[in-house]
Specification:
Elements (H helix, E strand, L loop, with lengths): L8 E2 L15 E5 L13 E2 L12 E3 L7 E4 L2 E11 L2 E5 L1 E3 L5 E2 L2 E8 L6 E9 L12 E6 L7 E7 L11 E6 L8 E7 L3 E6 L2 E7 L14 E9 L16 E11 L1
Parallel strand pairs: 1-14, 4-7
Antiparallel strand pairs: 2-19, 3-8, 5-6, 6-7, 6-19, 8-18, 9-18, 10-15, 10-19, 11-12, 11-18, 12-13, 13-14, 15-16, 16-17
Length: 260
């Protein structure tokens, strides 16, 4: 997850729709139909509090129900204001790395987002093998990002060596959606060898096409895995400061589904 220097806001979602069809083959999912810690056969944790390259303020924990748990059919990721390993906030970052890794597919995540200034939740993907080198050379796919100081907008993006926020060339689109903190929505991508298309509730709003000019522009011919997290503050999420009165904040996830 990376901050953006320039963000293009798309106010109206296009009418193009993407729906799961009988031809889609479900290859991996978590329906969260259990209670307790997230399923360890599907999820691991990234842990630590070093800022994660974005000057973030949270410490990511592991195997701690206060920050990540399944209850009432939902995955609950919770950011809390509390002292944790030298940081002032705790949170969780779940990853499917080496437990769910795919080259191409359709990824669907139904979620309700946290709210408030300083919150930065994300549903995204990183390369499993980093074949082309460190970020951004091996790529990043941001299925959904939200920053609490812009409470009416959702963003979908990709980052590569040629197209990234450091150069101001990232491929980004935003959607006006003021109810995302009160309602569940389905955030999805359809990714194949020619493009990555972004959807909310089955409506396409962004596309990144393979220009066939090498890995610098298109490193997305390798395996990627999913990440679910809530960051606090950071270069983008904390741009307008943090409202300490909002905590705890939760991202609720109804399901994660991956199709071939």
């Amino acid at each position: 997850m990376q901050p953006f220097i320039a963000i293009a806001l798309l106010l109206l979602v296009s009418s193009c729709r993407e729906k799961s069809t009988p031809q889609d083959h479900l290859v991996w999912s978590d329906e969260f139909d259990y209670n307790g810690l997230p399923d360890s056969s599907k999820w691991s944790y990234d842990t630590g509090g070093d800022g994660w390259g974005n000057n973030e303020l949270q410490y990511y924990t592991a195997d701690r129900v206060e920050n990540a748990r399944v209850e009432n059919g939902l995955l609950v990721l919770e950011a809390r204001k509390e002292a944790m390993e030298g940081r002032s906030y705790s949170s969780a970052r779940l990853v499917s790395r080496k437990k769910g890794d795919w080259q191409y597919g359709k990824m669907e995540i139904r979620a309700q987002l946290p709210q408030g200034r300083g919150i930065w939740p994300a549903i995204w993907m990183l390369p499993t093998d980093w074949r082309y080198g460190d970020w951004p050379r091996s790529g990043e796919i941001d299925i959904m990002e939200f920053v609490g100081y812009a409470p009416d907008s959702i963003y979908g993006s990709v980052h590569t060596e040629s197209f990234n926020h450091v150069k101001g060339t990232q491929s980004t689109r935003g959607v006006f959606m003021p109810d995302q903190g009160k309602a569940f929505h389905v955030y999805a991508i359809a990714w194949d060898e020619n493009s990555i298309r972004f959807f909310i509730d089955g409506k396409q709003y962004h596309q990144f096409a393979n220009n066939h000019q090498g890995w610098e522009a298109w490193p997305f011919d390798q395996r990627f895995h999913l990440l679910l997290n809530i960051a606090v503050g950071g270069n983008w999420g904390g741009k307008d400061g943090i409202d300490e009165s909002i905590f705890p904040q939760r991202m609720l996830v109804d399901y994660v589904r991956v199709y071939r």
